[in-house]
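for the record, two folds in this file. i put them one after another cuz i was lazy. first one right below, seq on top, C-alpha cells after. the second one comes after a little note so u can tell where it starts
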Amino acid sequence: MNKQQVTKAIEKVLNSSKIGVLSTAHHNKPNSRYMVFYNDDLNLYTKTNINSLKVEEIENNPDAHILLGYNETTNNSFVEIDATIEVVKDQ
C-alpha cells in the first residue's frame, strides 16, 4: 500500500469506530479504559471529566496508546496509535 491508501484505510477505521481503548500510565503502570473518540482530520478527541484521574495521568505523562476498530469494521481492521496527548479545555 502507498501512503495515500494507508491514510484512507486508517480514516475508514477512525470514522466507523467510535469506542476504543485509551491507555495511559498511573504510577508507571498501564491504566486502560474504554472511551468514545471523535475523528477530526486524523486528530482524535474524547470527552471526560476535568477532575478525572485520567486528566492527572495525561498531565503527568502525555504518552498514551489508543486502540480502535476491529468489531465495528467489515474486515476486522483496526488501528493502534502511539500518541502524545494533551488536555484541551475549550469546546
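(here's the note) second protein begins now
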Amino acid sequence: MKFTSLRNKRVLVTGAAAGIGYATALAFARRGAQLFITDIDEQRLFEARKAIEELGVPCFSQTADVSKQPSMQAFADRVHDEGGAIDILVNNAGIGYLGPFIGSPIESWHRTLAVNVMGVVHGCHYFLPRMIEAGGCRRVVNVASLAAIAPAPNMSAYAATKSAVLGFSDVLSMELKLAGSSVGVTTICPGVINTDIANSRANVSAAVSDAQLTKLQSYYRKNGATAELVADAIVDAVLNGKAIVLVGPFARLMYHTKRLSRRLVEKLMLAEAKKLGYS
C-alpha cells in the first residue's frame, strides 16, 4: 500500500541525532509528519528536536539505547501513550566497525550485533504489533547497507550485521503478506555515504593503521553522497511502497553486478581495498 500524504502521520526514527537519521527526521517533518525521535546522544537529540519543531510540526524525543531491551520497551510505552500506533517506523540507528576478523576483539562483534541487528529487532518487536493491530497503510523501514550485498575487507562484523538486517526484512515482509497485513517493509541499502559512521577511531580495530584510516576518511569525503540523499530516498520509498532501495554511489551498480558475477564483485572490492591501504 502507498501513502497519499505524510501530513500528520506518526513517524518514528531511531538514531535521529545525526547522519541519515537526522536528515530523515527532517525530511519527514518538511512533509508535515509528526516525529518521534530517539538516540543515545542527549544533547544532539535535543538539538534535532528543536530543528524539527522549527519546521512547525510536533516532535517527541527521548533518549534510548536501541541495543537494550528495557530501554526500547520504555521508549515504546511513552510513544504509545502519546497517541497510539506509529504509521512509519524507521529503524536507522547503527554503528560502523572497521577491522580485519583476525585482529578485532570479540567485544567488537557483540557491540555491532547488539546495535545493528538487535536495534532493528527491538524496534520491530515493540512497535510492529501495535501497527498491525491499528490496520491501514503503515510501513517499516530498516536501514541496511551496500555492505550487505558487496562487502569489503575489514568489514566482517559490519557486513554480517547489515546482511542480517536485509535477510530479516525479507522474511518479515513475507510473513506480513501471509498474515494479510497492510503493513509494508522497505529495506534501504545506501552505498558510500559521508556521515560520522566513517569518521571515528572508536569503532576501528587497532590493526588498522592511522594512515589507512585517513585514506578511508578522505575517500568517504570525496566520493560519499550526503545523508540528505538517503533521507529523500527513504521518503520516496514510503510514498511509493518500495521494497528495496539502492541509493548513493555504487549501490545500484554493485547490486546488479553481483547478480551477474560474484567473482567480478570480489575482484573489484579487493582492488579498491588495496587502493585504500589494506594489506
